[in-house]
Design a protein that fits this description.
Blueprint lengths: L18 E5 L6 E6 L2 E4 H5 L10 H4 L3 H16 L11 E3 L4 E3 L7 E4 L3 H11 L16 E3 L5 E3 L4 E2 L2 E4 L8 E4 L3 E2 L2 E7 L14 H4 E8 L2 E2 H7 L13 E3 L4 E2 L7 E2 L20 E2 L2 E6 L2 E4 L10 H8 L11 E3 L14 H4 L7 E2 L5 E2 L7 E9 L5 E12 L8
Bound molecules: manganese (II) ion.
The site of manganese (II) ion has 6 residues, from loops.
């Protein structure tokens, strides 16, 4: 029990302790930990220089022993009445802080690991072919994205412009995307780097990955459909990727671990995870203008984050502190478990009807999309992830138009 008066249903109890970067008016960004509806100022509390750098990277680079040590110190200080006097003065109400990008993102990779999502997209983009490509059940497909446009929740989503060609057009045109979409995903943040030329085995996943955040991989479907063959996503994705401000430690998710769905066939040795699979029972919620439109189940993902990490380093590619890799759109088998509008509206052919009677296929200017999530914690508690949100704003004027 904590000397803090924590609400019974808080997703931010002593079992969670997510880290983020915050500031109060007139102060510099620094690291904090969320507890209930408060933020503990880690720099003021600990005087550890790692926590005053304005990103979590310095602390994450210290590795798993240091991560566990901080967690233990925090639990001690927040439960033992003797530490109350040395802790309470450094707590700030969460509604008085501004949250910043938690991590200086090194490399950003996005996977494609929901079978339901991959099959839906395959049926939509390639109706005359098998929905899954032959490699899909053998390896976690992914692409390298743009680290510099990963931004914190709340960053406005400027409608991107680009080149597209609809089936009715003879030639491509340039202009604002007319098919702006979301992708509800879960992101994994690397702390401990790895050496060039050395693969990270699947069992070393918790030695390298510190924690988990929520990701919205905003996607311009019209740009994507025209540009993606044969090298994959590019400008239809790179204009913005939003992340939640709190990074939930892997250590908080022990009670959420589950076996992933059955695989179609045996996987190659470096992807075998029979002994300690890293499926996670995280339930996402997608809200459009405050109305819940989907509840994607992360436990249905075919490939786990540990398999993704083993695969992305399997060629000897080195990890850096701050690497972010996202799961790919999380979609379940049911309609209202799909994690993108292109699936929910079946490429615009079956519009969603909202509570106010309006309909949506893709996003309109002014729309606000919020993704939140929770997972089971110890003893029936819940682990909260907070949220990642963004409002679509009209395109800014450019020289070309
Ligand atoms: Mn994606």
């Amino acid at each position: 029990m904590s000397w803090l008066d924590l609400p019974a249903d808080t997703g931010f109890g002593l079992d969670n302790l997510p880290l983020g970067v915050f500031s109060t008016p007139g102060t510099e960004p620094r690291s904090g930990v969320r507890i209930g509806d408060l933020v503990l100022d880690l720099w003021a509390w600990s005087h550890d220089e790692d926590h005053r750098t304005g990103s979590l990277n310095a602390f994450l680079a210290r590795g798993p022993e240091r991560w566990a040590q901080l967690r233990s110190e925090l639990r001690g200080s927040l439960t033992d009445e003797a530490h109350r006097g040395g802790t309470e003065p450094f707590l700030v109400p969460v509604d008085q802080v501004e949250m910043h990008l938690p991590v200086e993102v090194a490399d950003y990779v996005d996977f494609y690991s929901s079978r339901q999502h991959a099959e839906n997209i395959g049926r939509i983009f390639r109706p005359d072919a098998e929905p899954l490509t032959p490699n899909w059940t053998h390896l976690p497909i992914g692409y390298h994205g743009r680290a510099g446009t990963v931004r914190v929740s709340g960053t406005p989503v400027v409608r991107p412009s680009g080149q597209r060609r609809s089936p009715a057009d003879d030639a491509p045109t340039f202009g604002p995307s007319e098919r702006l979409d979301i992708e509800a995903e879960v992101g994994f943040v690397v702390g401990t780097p790895s050496a060039l030329g050395e693969a990270v085995p699947l069992r070393a996943f918790p030695d390298h990955v510190f924690g988990v955040c929520l990701v919205n991989d905003w996607s311009a479907r019209d740009l994507q459909a025209w540009e993606y063959v044969p090298l994959g996503p590019f400008l239809g994705k790179s204009f913005l990727t939003s992340v939640s401000p709190w990074v939930v430690p892997l250590a908080a998710l022990e009670a959420a671990r589950v076996a992933p769905p059955p695989r179609d066939h045996t996987v190659l040795h470096y992807l075998e995870d029979d002994e300690h699979p890293w499926g996670l029972d995280i339930t996402l919620e997608v809200a459009l203008n405050g109305e819940r439109i989907s509840r994607p189940p992360f436990r249905e993902m075919y490939w786990t984050a540990a398999q993704q990490l083993a695969h992305l380093t399997g060629n000897g590619a080195a990890l850096r502190t701050g690497d972010l890799f996202a799961s790919g759109t999380v979609s379940g088998p049911e309609l209202r478990q799909r994690g993108s509008l292109i699936e929910l509206s079946w490429n615009g052919r079956e519009p969603l009807t909202l509570a106010d009677g309006s309909t949506r296929t893709f996003l309109e200017d002014g729309d606000v999309v919020t993704i939140s999530a929770s997972a089971p914690g110890p003893g029936g508690s819940r682990i909260g992830f907070g949220e990642v949100t963004g409002r679509v704003v009209p395109p800014r004027h450019t020289l070309s138009g």
